[in-house]
Amino acid sequence: MNRFEEMQASHEEMETIRNRAKDIVLEAKTSYRDELYKIRNDRMLSEEGKAQAQEKLHLKYQDAFLGAMLEVQDKAKAAAEKTIDLATQIILEDPEKPTETEISLFQQKLNDLKTSILLAPDSERGVESLKAFVEETSDPYLAKQIQAEFHDMAASIVKDGSAAEKVKLNDLYTRLKSKSMTDEQKRAETLKGLATARKNSDLLLDGGVHHNAIKELLGPETAMYANKPHQYFDRMINEQN
């Protein structure tokens, strides 16, 4: 498995783990109600005994549920961090080099471009020359070389240019950044953004179906800690000390 495949697998693992949170809710809902039914219909227990058994059952499931959510949260966060790390490595990789001949020809054209921009009669002509060169460059490695020189070339143009030229140059630079990335790097950038957003996001949508199910089943306190189980167990430790 190469780095790209490992990144994709890590992202899929993150989503699989996060989806597990909803299954935990449904499993808790089924088993809790089954045990609660048995307690309520146990003829050997007094009303007081039933109340005590129900309270014990509630605490048992609260701890079990939040413990399971804590495990899911930690594993999902670890998978997200791994995805982000691998994606960053891929994004920072240099694209594959073309042949030395292609690089030499490109460098000669780039030098000609820099001279033509410097001697352009007006900023608009300079923008058009740069745009044409960027558009005809399709190799990511070569596009990255233009990106490295873009600041100096743009500075020559905007020196006497208008705001309109700056807008065009900004759009052109955005296009150039895309061209300087391989398809794998573009995918890595997308997955990095998704994993970053998911890293610290709630496992259960607040007020959503599954969150409300836990609130109804185990009460508002359990629901409050569903997306922050670490806080619950930290509180338990502090109360015991």
Descriptive notes:
The chain is an all-alpha fold and 241 residues long. It has helices spanning 3-40, 47-92, 100-118, 123-136, 140-158, 163-179, 183-199, 209-218, 220-225, 229-240. The protein is elongated, with a radius of gyration of 29 Å.
Query: Helix amount, in percent?
Result: over 70%
Q: Give the CA-CA distance, first to last residue.
A: 48 Å
Structural class assignment: mainly alpha
Average pLDDT metric:
93
Radius of gyration: 29 Å
Question: How many DSSP E strands?
Answer: 0
Largest sheet: none
What is the H/E string?
HHHHHHHHHH
How would the global form be characterised? Answer: elongated
Detail the poorly predicted runs.
none
**Strand composition percent:** under 5%
What's the number of helices? 10
How do you describe this structure in short?
The protein is mostly helical and 241 residues long. Helix content is 82%, strand content 0%.
Considering the chains and any ligands shown, give keywords for the structure:
elongated; 10 helices; 241 residues; single chain; mainly alpha
List the topology elements.
Elements: H1 3-40, H2 47-92, H3 100-118, H4 123-136, H5 140-158, H6 163-179, H7 183-199, H8 209-218, H9 220-225, H10 229-240
Helix pairs in contact: 1-2, 1-7, 1-8, 2-7, 2-10, 3-4, 3-5, 4-5, 4-6, 5-6
